[in-house]
Amino acid sequence: MTAPKTFRIKSFGCQMNVYDGERMAELLGDTGMTAAPDGADADLVVLNTCHIREKAAEKAYSDVGRLTREDGTKPIVALAGCVAQAEGAEAQRRSKLIDLVVGPQAYHRLPHMVAEAAAGRRSVDTDMPAISKFDALPARRRSGPSAFLSVQEGCDKFCTYCVVPYTRGAEISRSFAQIVAEAEELVAGGARELTLLGQNVNAWEADGHDLASLIRHLATFGELERIRYTTSHPVNMGDALIQAHADVAKLTPYLHLPVQSGSDPILRAMNRSHAVDSYLATIARVREARPDIAISGDFIVGFPGETEADFEATLAIVDTVRYASAFSFKYSPRPGTPAATMAGQVAPEVMDDRLQRLQACISQHSTAFNASCVGRTVPVLIEKKGRKPGQMIGKSPYLQSVFLDTAAPTGTIVHARLTHALPNSLGGEEVTLAAAA
Ligand code: 5AD
Ligand code: SF4
Asked: Which residues form the Radical SAM core domain (predicted)?
């Protein structure tokens, strides 16, 4: 195989994987490779996989199988992300097409592993090294208006359904100085909004700072307009962070706070370390601090032992919280997790039925939330061109997509009066600030 010149990275799963994919692209770019244009063959394909649900490994192997070209040749194939971490060396035993396997904590070694692959040598690296990959990654140079910034990785909470503690390892926080340096690079490269990422982002703490004080520091950056963070765990939703929602203007009124179930027995079986009441009390405090905040969540239906009454309690908590948006999933047994072998696994048709009912309930609330915004004037961060001439698409502070006609370029904030709500977005009209006031 000759040295590859072009690459394609396909990221699945969470925003952390999107971030990791960007960092891998930057690393490969520094070796002189370029991203393959859409539709063109790439010399290297990186599958940046997710292991959270369903037949993740099987899907990854079938994606690998499809990379063989019509003439029988194939690109260099890299299996990255959480399936790579979970499968390790087994991946190359199962598929001879995979040249290298690299885990989420080891991808700073990707360029070296690609060079090895080009020389005909296969490699596996799923180390969770003592030296953080972040020390070995290049500086950020360019950024779109909205950028992800990983501040925390891994999880020590061990929810009984979840693979993350195994694929991403123990909770680690990046240093304050390193995060601030990367934030400065991203803002200098064009970012106007930063989303701080972590599997338990609100557990971040380093060098005497907690997430609230990190946010307060970043809010002093003149050109940075908005700060977001995701995903939070209810038990780490401390007073300081809630207070930041009250008095940091750049912190957006949006909180993703998964509860997973509205039933205490199920929350206990999930090892969630919070109850329905304590979760609702946290939501109430957040709403007191920031009355207009949009709350979003994650739910699992059909966890082992979930009865119809447990499920109805989940519908009830959705009605109580009135989520602005929420994601819901059928429970999927993950190899090696405690819940996979629990008694009372729920039949697939029962899960299908519950998922449908839950999604109908969530959609009522998200539609109502969007409808309640019509008539309001909100700042919109312009992110890209729309499909119609003159149209641009941006985000409201509540993370809604907003379509509007404007001459404002990407990366600017315009004020828009929201005129109509569609199922997953809103239409708006640009207004001048005087009219908005
Ligand atoms: N089955 C179904 N959903 C899951 N999630 C995590 N693990 C599983 C699983 N085994 C969901 C949770 C989590 C989101 C990222 O994925 O709702 O918050
Ligand atoms: Fe998927 Fe979790 Fe890995 Fe993200 S961290 S890619 S959600 S398994």
From this structure: 141-368
